[in-house]
Design brief:
Layout (H helix, E strand, L loop, with lengths): L6 E7 L3 H12 L8 E7 L5 H11 L3 E5 L9 E6 L2 E5 L1
Parallel strand pairs: 1-2, 2-3
Antiparallel strand pairs: 4-5
Helix pairs in contact: 1-2
Length: 90
């Protein structure tokens, strides 16, 4: 069997507490080796979303909450490291 590549799922969200838990459950339940995937949640919400993301991170070691410095996903938002590699979203 060929080894699958490591992947990082970048999940930007803002004030979406009503859907974050459901989305994280589906991302974690993917048929992909857990040691090969990480889920990065970019969030700076003012509702219950950050608490929901932290809850998801406690349930699954694959979820990593990241706070942003403003609203939504920034242009040139950079995350280092992601499974030992840099990821850049523009």
């Amino acid at each position: 069997m060929t080894s699958r590549p490591s992947i990082s799922v970048i999940f930007p969200t803002y004030n979406r507490c009503d859907v974050v838990e459901h989305t994280l459950e589906h991302l974690v339940a993917q048929d992909y080796p857990a040691e090969r995937i990480e889920i990065l949640v970019c969030d700076n919400s003012s509702d219950g979303t950050p608490a929901m993301v932290v809850h998801g991170a406690r349930k699954s070691g694959d979820v990593r909450p990241l706070a942003e410095m403003g609203l939504g996903l920034h242009v040139e938002f950079e995350v280092v490291p992601t499974n030992g590699h840099a990821a850049k979203v523009t």
